[in-house]
Amino acid sequence: MENPVRFDLWAVVRPGVAAEAVAELRRLDPHLAEVEVRRRVSRSWREWTFIPLAGRVRWSQVLAVRAAPPAWAGQLRCYQEGYSPDEPPIGYCPEHDLHFGGCLGCHVCTGFFVR
Question: pTM score, two decimals?
């Protein structure tokens, strides 16, 4: 049997706030090399591309980030864990603003997720 779904949050960095984004992303993932964080942040604001913000989070954490997004984030997206903007999922739920994979629909609608 499968485990309930978790979620990955992705964000785009607004121009002019790269230093704040680098500092927060380094704090969230200290194992990631600073040069890699800077490269991702720079590309994000230059090309308006999404970068990972938080992975394997509960739905309650998604709601908390949406309620108070980082000041540097120009846009947020939520994906079912394991999916990303680079590999578009099969479906999208406008009610929960969730990109998901599989044929069973939105996991929040079905209740099969980690709260």
Answer: 0.93
